[in-house]
Specification:
Layout lengths: L12 E4 L7 H17 L4 E6 L5 H13 L4 E7 L2 H10 L4 E5 L8 E8 L7 H13 L9 E3 L3 H11 L7 E5 L9 H7 L3 E5 L17 H14 L3 E5 L6 E4 L3
Helix pairs in contact: 1-2, 1-4
């Protein structure tokens, strides 16, 4: 299978979910190529998570199947944020890591973020290596083991050790109905923050706007809520939790 070369970006893989770009078949091939890269580096396990989109779990299942059939042990994390996936590499001592996510892109897109070591995401040369392997299909076979883990409590405990507030804060949290609505508000509440929710209900149709804090619409909405509620701060965060925008009352 020769995948569209433009999907192989400098540091991750991104494309439309359709018959020609990303789908369960192409994700399986990408997973087999990534597994071959892991084997070449002596890495035998990987954590795997996905974002909150209607098609993300199916794509993650295809990736999981590819890794297991290549002899890579998989720790399945379910629907999480990208930072949670990278942190889980340390929690579970796995140098491999996969996140199925469209990041801040609109519905209809997906992608794959990959790790080849602790705090090591693929760099341009490694992305080209991945693409060449998808073309050559010089894959490996095996029988990996599957575990299911819920990393939230470990992630929260880790976060709590690093965060201290001098006073109680009132914070608007805008997740634009994306997956971070399941995590960020309750994390902040447990840290003693008064949370003013804004579009935190999970709805993968994203009825108000795309979860992208680079957009003026999302930031304007967040800022208006900060002024309305006299909050200290507004946080607008993207779909997989690795991009945010901040606003105060001005």
């Amino acid at each position: 299978m020769q995948l569209e070369p433009t999907m192989f970006r400098e540091y991750d893989l991104r494309g439309l979910v359709n018959d020609d770009e990303l789908n369960v078949k192409s994700i399986f091939v990408i997973g087999k190529a990534y597994a071959a890269m892991l084997w070449q580096r002596g890495i035998k396990s990987a954590v795997l998570g996905y974002d909150y989109r209607s098609y993300s779990e199916d794509l993650a299942n295809a990736m999981q199947k590819a890794l297991l059939e290549s002899g890579i042990d998989v720790i399945s994390l379910g629907m999480i944020s990208t930072p949670m996936m990278y942190a889980s590499q340390y929690y579970y001592k796995t140098q491999g890591g996969v996140m199925i996510t469209a990041s801040h892109n609109p519905n209809g897109w997906s992608g794959v973020k990959l790790a080849l070591g602790y705090s090591h995401t693929l760099v341009p040369l490694e992305m080209q290596e991945l693409r060449k392997l998808t073309i050559s299909q010089n894959f490996v076979s095996g029988c990996g083991k599957l575990q299911q883990k819920n990393c939230y409590e470990e992630y929260f405990a880790d976060l709590k050790k690093r965060v201290q507030f001098e006073r109680k804060l009132k914070v608007v949290v805008n997740t634009a109905n994306a997956g971070m609505g399941a995590y960020l508000p309750k994390m902040l509440v447990r840290l003693g923050v008064e949370v003013v929710p804004l579009h935190n209900e999970l709805d993968w149709t994203f009825p108000f706007y795309n979860p992208n804090p680079s957009s003026v619409e999302m930031m304007d909405d967040t800022g208006a809520k900060v002024r309305e509620t006299k909050a200290d701060l507004g946080i607008a965060i993207d779909a997989d939790g690795d991009r945010l925008g901040l606003t105060n009352e001005l």
